[in-house]
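User: Here's a chain of 468 residues. Predict its fold as tokens.
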Amino acid sequence: MFARSISRRWFINTVGAVLVILVVFVSALSFMVQSSTYNGIESTLRGRMDELLNWLSSRSLDYQTSEFTAVTRDYIETFQDKAKMEIMALNRNGRVFITSTGFEPDYEQPMPDYHIALASPDGSGKWVGELNTGEKVMAITRVVRNENGSLVGSVRYMVSMERADQQTLTIVVFLAIAALFIMLLLTLSGVYFIRSILVPVRQVSQSARKIAQGDFEVRIEKARDDEIGQLCDTINDMAGELGAAERMKNEFISSVSHELRTPLTAIKGWAETLRGGADPATEEKGMDVIIRESERLSGLVEELLDFSRLQNGRMQLLRERMDILAELDEAVYLFTERARTEGKELKYEENISLAPVYGDRDRLKQVFVNIIDNALKYTGEGGSVTVSSELTGEQVKVIIADTGCGIPEEHLANVKKKFYKANQLVRGSGIGLAVADEIVAMHEGTLELESTEGKGTTVTISIPLCKT
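Assistant: Prediction complete.
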């Protein structure tokens, strides 16, 4: 699991990169410290070498071998920094004849710097290496020649590098410890940060899996008010919305099942009655019921098909220049007899001055039919439904107002959503208003609702005028 995790990628990308940077930095800084230390020691040795050569020059020597030997011996014997460095004098044969240590010179010790100085144009040579005893030293040799260029002797300064290397090592260890501390701090802070992300992400993943399996009651506990917290809020809101949608879907299925079963039961019952023989009056009544319930069943099926077309984006409008008043007249006429039979008043305030619109005749008529049907369903006996129209600016408005039960304020914002029914006691599938709203939107219009519970509902449909 770790091989594919965010932690592994973070460890490789961040900790690995920082580790490489720190190693390079510590190595470079260690090299710089060592170089600086070695250069400082070399500069000191060369300064002492120049000091000795200047002292020799001040003695007005003619650089005879005997004089060089006497003068250098005198200088070395009185040398003040014997504890810090060793100074030795060599004759012209390269043999040490005196050292500042006071001990017999070790003629077996290597002196590469002397040979370098002999071959160097400026008569100087440097060597850093180990003596036969294993001690690391730095040695600088300067050869001395007379006016004729003949070798008179050499002077050699040598200092132990053990202390310098020890100091350099101390600095390197300190830098390494500092780098390890930085790595530890980075790792701990990184682990804390990654855990603060991974733990909620795992919770989100587990909750999303439960939601995918149909458990819409699951909720994620928000630990912090950051991006992860916002994601938790979003997942929780999504679960709530899905839960509400699932409930509405189940209610829709139940409602549609009931809507389908009712006319089918009536049709089947009257068909069985008529098959057994009946008098003309009963036969006529039964045929009327069968025809009416068949039309109701056909309308419900057509409504479902329209909703399916809208959901899949397959509904096509046959738009043309049309008289919207004619379609409104027909829609009102369809419900005139029903309103009278149910003891309700259907008022129609006809407006003959409406301008033409560019739309689909059948679909706009379907919208008017759906809205008037809803208004009559939610209006009790003795109530009224008023249909009117007006021309406002560049739009035609159709207003359908009823004196029914109205829509509670908490349901008003959702009644145009698919499957939503504010009143479960009234028959209907719960998708008629959603289909009507989609059709109006396809005509670049709007469908607005205003309602007061217990007083009634007003639906305003606005359709743009034909521009040509």
